[in-house]
């Protein structure tokens, strides 16, 4: 009798394991998160109302006949640093096939900036096991672009520098390892926590050249292993193929590809279509050049290229004056076409992580978001669900 009971339990465990395996999503659909939609005292220099960049979204207006603005959030001006709001967002993301958030992460004047969405929202949400997360260090300089009252005007002064020296780099890395890598929902590739860097030029300039940057990366990898991890999965957001990299005092230190190889990155992706192609045209026309860029990178690089899809681009909400360069016809139906191409790319690369990066979860002021809006409802999220959850 006991043997039969044990046998029965083994069968149940096997069936449960198979069911969980079947339920597990095959693709890692990762949306970048712009964490500016919550109260933050330090951010009041840009958005004095105290609700983050919702202040800019609220003032959005159409600037010409046929301009598909303004677009407003269907959920309203939510506080994304509230754990109960974060739970809603996580459920909406997971239910539609977005199973990774890549948080834009900032560090200026020797302290973090805009961590509320991550620390007080996502990390305190009771369901954060449904959507994994990792960090993209947005190490760019900051000028007046976030301040609509002054954006694009002659007094567009530098506010914060994104570059850091070696001492500060080590402070950042220790914080990231201790505070984030150890979280059970932190995203990993082959057991190695992923960490992405946004601006290669600024990083190299701050650390004092390519060799110093390479040494800093080796130190970072060693510290990650000391903390008990298998290693570090170091990623980079690319610019256009063939673009050069500059070091100290703007000196050219090599091509983007050469420097990436020297520094030993583990994977590359993009943050936005606007970084490598002309976006002032129809979305379907853009996709043709985007696919060519994917294939070029796949040929050029020995490390994985994680295929990238952007929803669109129009950063007019951030400016009082008109800004050229607007993606046209980026409907949910056309976005779905891009997702299918990305899915095919992943299927053709079974030896690398099935990671697809998307811009973005909530870049409202750049008009590249997945969150439901007053124009398309849940259209963009439903496109992801249709491609990655409903079709096997």
TrEMBL record:
Q: Does the keyword Ribosomal protein apply?
A: no
> Any coiled-coil ranges, and where?
none
Q: Which domain of life is it from?
A: Bacteria
Oxidoreductase as UniProt keyword: no
Q: Keywords assigned by UniProt?
A: Signal
Q: Please list which residues make up the signal peptide.
A: 1-19
* Pfam families in alphabetical order: Glyco_tran_WbsX
What the entry lists under PANTHER family is as follows: GLYCOSYLTRANSFERASE, RHAMNAN SYNTHESIS F
Q: What is this protein called?
A: Glycosyltransferase WbsX
The organism named in the record is Maribellus comscasis
């Amino acid at each position: 009798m006991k043997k039969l009971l044990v046998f029965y339990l083994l069968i149940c465990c096997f069936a449960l394991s198979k069911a969980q395996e079947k339920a597990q999503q095959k693709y890692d659909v990762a949306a970048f998160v712009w964490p500016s939609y919550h109260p933050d005292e330090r951010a009041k220099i840009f958005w004095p109302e105290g609700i983050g960049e919702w202040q800019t979204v609220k003032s959005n207006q159409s600037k010409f006949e046929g301009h598909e603005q303004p677009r407003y959030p269907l959920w309203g001006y939510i506080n994304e640093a509230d754990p109960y709001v974060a739970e809603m967002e996580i459920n909406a993301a997971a239910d539609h096939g977005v199973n990774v958030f890549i948080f834009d992460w900032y560090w200026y004047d020797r302290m973090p900036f805009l961590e509320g969405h991550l620390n007080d929202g996502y990390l305190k949400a009771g369901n954060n096991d449904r959507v994994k997360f990792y960090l993209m260090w947005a190490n760019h300089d900051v000028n007046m672009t976030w301040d609509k009252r002054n954006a694009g005007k002659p007094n567009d002064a530098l506010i914060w520098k994104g570059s850091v020296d070696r001492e500060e780099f080590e402070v950042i890395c220790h914080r990231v390892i201790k505070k984030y890598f150890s979280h059970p929902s932190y995203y990993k590739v082959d057991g190695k926590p992923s960490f992405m860097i946004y601006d290669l030029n600024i990083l190299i300039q701050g650390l004092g050249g390519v060799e110093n940057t390479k040494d800093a990366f080796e130190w970072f990898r060693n510290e990650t292993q000391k903390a008990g991890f298998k290693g570090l999965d170091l990623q980079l957001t690319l610019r256009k193929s063939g673009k050069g990299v500059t070091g100290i005092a703007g000196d050219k230190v090599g091509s983007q590809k050469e420097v990436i190889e020297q520094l030993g990155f583990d994977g590359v992706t993009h943050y936005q279509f606007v970084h490598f192609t002309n976006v002032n045209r129809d979305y379907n026309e853009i996709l043709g050049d985007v696919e060519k860029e994917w294939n070029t990178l796949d040929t050029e690089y020995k490390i994985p290229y994680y295929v990238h899809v952007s929803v669109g681009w129009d950063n007019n909400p951030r400016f009082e004056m008109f800004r050229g360069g607007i993606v046209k016809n980026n409907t949910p139906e056309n976005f779905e076409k891009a997702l299918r191409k990305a899915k095919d790319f992943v299927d053709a690369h079974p030896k690398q992580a099935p990671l697809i990066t998307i811009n973005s979860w909530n870049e409202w002021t750049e008009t590249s978001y997945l969150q439901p809006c007053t124009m398309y409802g849940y259209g963009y999220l439903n496109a992801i669900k249709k491609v990655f959850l409903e079709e096997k």
